[in-house]
Design a protein that fits this description.
Oligomer: single chain
Structural class: mainly alpha
Number of strands: 0
Distance between the termini: 57 Å
CATH architecture of the largest domain: Orthogonal Bundle
CATH class of the largest domain: Mainly Alpha
Radius of gyration: 23 Å
Shape: elongated
Helix content: 55-70%
Number of helices: 7
Length: 171
Amino acid sequence: MTGIDLRDLAYHLVEEDMSARRLAPATRGAIRAAQKEFFRIVSRRHSGNLRAIGKKELVAYHAYLVERKSKRTGEKLTATTINDRFHSVCLVFSVLYRGGAIDENPAHGLKLDLVEPVGWKRRPLTMDEITRFLESIDPGTKQGLKDRTLFELIYSSGLRVAEAAAGRHRF
């Protein structure tokens, strides 16, 4: 199997994997774009032979992403973008290995410190914070009763805000 055939097989297997996981169209597009960029780089350095890619090349690709600047903003790529693009490339080798097209997955066991996203970290609210928030809503008004009911529903059932919002017109 030539490098081009293996690349085409990788595209096919990744598409099947994305379909099985029911990824959103935007996510699929981002994964495809990251993989196409990687294949362009590989074709320049390794004649497009995915079998020639090992851990060393994946580490070098990650370093390239860390130093790369966005074409749109001129700024370095964000940590989330770097991680998403790198994982998209690792997916190529994962599906090829699972499909039996390559003997070893170079991404498997790769000890690579991925960049941690900068910014606020999510944390669950404490019971006291939730109680204070719910009690701050006045159920004496029509809007207050509606809001309190909605937030009680979200909290007690573990709904995401988008899930609650999507169901608001079903009542």
